[in-house]
Amino acid sequence: MVSSKDVAKYAGVSQTTVSRVINTPELVKPKTIEKVMRAIEELNYIPNDIARSLVQQKTGTITLISGPLHNPFFVDSTTAIVNYVNARGYKVHVYFGTEDNLDTIYNSVLETKADAIILSSMLYTDPLFFKLEKLGIPFIMFNRKHQENRHFVEINNVEAGYIATNHILSLGHRDICWIGGPHEMSTFYGRYKGFQKALEDHQINAKAMPSFFTNTNKIDIERVFEEIVKLPKRPTAICAATDAIAIEILNLCLAQGYRVPGDFNVIGIDNVELSKHHSIALTTVGLESEKNLGFMAIEKLFEVMEKKSTCIQQTESVKLFPRNTTCKKIN
Fold first, then answer.
1. Burial 295-331 (b: 16+ CB within 10 A, else e)
2. How far, in Å, CA of 325 to CA of 331, rounded?
3. pLDDT band of 330, cuts 50, 70, 90
4. Are the CB atoms for 45 and 10 separated by under 8 Å?
5. Which one of 120, 203, 266, 290 is least enclosed by Cβ atoms within 10 Å?
6. Those residues with Cβ within 8 angstroms of residue 125's Cβ, 6 or more apart along the chain or in another chain
């Protein structure tokens, strides 16, 4: 097997020069580069990624901690992040976190060297934040924010919850239900605050509206829906904290013979690709720019890695995407 030492001997340069040509060609004279590259080609030398990483003190790897794939938001964002990272010449280690496996994932990530970390799993008071800062690893959160208020790209979650609820109210609905996730996550907490604020602005007691805070897997959403249909006064509209929840609710409505939007209006938040599908056509709230939040975050992470930015604090505006799952209340 050909080594860099063989290339150096063939080209008549030192082994260090070969390493520089491969890793930092901008520091080498053009004639030397040409000589080394000719030797590499003629000897069919393939640089060793591990040896290169030792020289550069880099691994060429980004770690992504995504949310579960039953949420189409994470399907969209994972795809965008992986494609971007690969286009930049890096590899990606991907972990899919749920409510039950985060500690195991965090331990694995902290034991494995990577050049940077992008994650959507951070809880509002998560001690992982301080561990990452202490280690000096470039990292960024997307769709989440820590109480320390740095290293994040998110949508304006309070505004999103407000717009979604205000849309339902503007259609004449006054019996409204909220379904969201645990408030340890900034996303769910902010969106619920927006829900409350919209109700209060319409002089409606938010505490009088049924609200459910649950894990977001299929089984738990089914349980919540069973409770909703048994309420003494059944709501005419359901505000879901995510499109993933809204789409599952939409499916349950149709499976049990309820009309949408006839019996239930359903609105989500995120504007995932699946929501745009004509067979679903979910009314939702999403990024005003219609960009992918994961893509925006990974761009910012590379800015940090390249030392173009130090601390990212980015909150994006949102807007309503009215489609077929909401309509004016029928008296």
1. bbbbbbbbebbeeeeeebebebebebbebebbbeeee
2. 17
3. confident
4. no
5. 203
6. 146, 147, 184
**pLDDT at position 38:** 87
Angstrom CA distances, 175 to 172, 244, 253, stand at: 9, 22, 17
Sheet holding 283-287, edge to edge: 211-213, 176-180, 237-240, 265-269, 283-287, 318-321
Question: Omega into 138 within 30° of 0, i.e. cis?
Answer: no
The position carrying tokens 């040509």 is 21
Alpha helices in 88-217 (DSSP H): 102-111, 128-135, 157-170, 186-201
The Cα 56–Cα 52 span in angstroms is 6
d(CA 271, CA 318): 10
pLDDT of 203-253, one tens digit each? 999 888 999 999 888 999 999 999 999 999 999 999 999 999 999 999 999
Cα dihedral 278→284→286→291 (10° resolution): 0
How far is it, in rounded angstroms, from Cα 282 to Cα 268?
Answer: 7
Q: At what angle do helices 243-255 and 218-229 cross, to 10 degrees?
A: 60
Q: What is the rounded CA–CA span in Å between residue 29 and residue 21?
A: 9
Query: pLDDT by residue (tens digit) across 142-175?
Result: 999 999 999 999 999 999 999 999 999 999 999 9
Entry pTM: 0.82
Residue with tokens 């050909």: 2
